[in-house]
Amino acid sequence: MSISWRGCWVYSVPHPKGNVPDYVLEQLQRLKREISAKRQILEAADRLTADNTLTHAETFSLNPLRQELSELQSQREEVLKQIKPIDPSYQLTQTVQPISFGEILETPNLIGKIEDYLLNLLCCRSKILFAYHQARLCYWEARQLYSKIETQVQIFNHLPTDSAVRLETLKKLITTVSRLA
Hints:
mainly alpha
């Protein structure tokens, strides 16, 4: 799974299952970091090249960096080959294979899964929007009730000192507040 955040790609990748040696995992992590760093540099350079900010000579000077990236990627493939006997499915989580639209149409199962996923996604969005709308309505109703109750509570501070009148006033307040709630 990958997520784009402000132009950078963040990869959320599971660790291999099984008893993979620590040195292999460390080498894989190091290669991932180096590949990511070199990709970011090259992507920034490509953006500058597209804006005509870099000269041809500066663009040409990036070729060794492109070669280093290619070598690191081939080293990563070798490490993935070492992991494959231990966890055969791990390599599938490391790359995204593009699927053409024709291939999607040829696989009815995949279309069904995509339809189910999209339908579920749209239903979830609809439920979230409905809950948001209901929450806003309830919030405003609660604020109105609170302001009405708050005015009634102010009367408690100014109760008469005569106990009979005080009792009658309290009874009226209780009935008024209970109707509001």
